Amino acid sequence: MSCGKPHEVPCTEVLDRVYSYLDHELDRPDYTKIRQHLDECGPCLREYDLEEAVKHLVHKCCGSDRASDELRVKVMARIQQVQAELEGGDPPGDDPGE
Asked: Residue 77 in 3-state DSSP?
């Protein structure tokens, strides 16, 4: 997508980074460049508005759901296992002496 006008940040880059922009995960200079592009580019602004609406809808519909304690325990165990593997150690619970 492109509006056909020259921009400091190309439309493709803006659209690739729209979720980072929405989540405030960009540093200040990048955030400012994306904001400026959205102010100048109607097609990108419409795409941004659509993505923002989707994000808001997902948060509204799913944002209050809480994971069960059982799921939390499983996720934390898996995270610990992966961390141990990355550190070169054996995953917890795999030691035959335990």
From this structure: helix
- DSSP for 7-70 reads -SS-HHHHHHTHHHHHTT-S-HHHHHHHHHHHHH-HHHHHHHHHHHHHHHHHHHHHTT----HH
DSSP secondary structure code for residue 6 in this structure: -
pTM assigned to the model:
0.59
Type of residue numbered 1: M
Q: Which residue in the block uniquely carries the two structure tokens 């989707």?
A: 54
Nearest to 5 by CA among 35, 44, 34: 44
Annotated domain spans of the chain:
11-66
Model pLDDT for residues 25-70, shown as the tens digit of each residue: 999 999 999 999 999 999 999 999 999 999 888 888 877 777 788 9
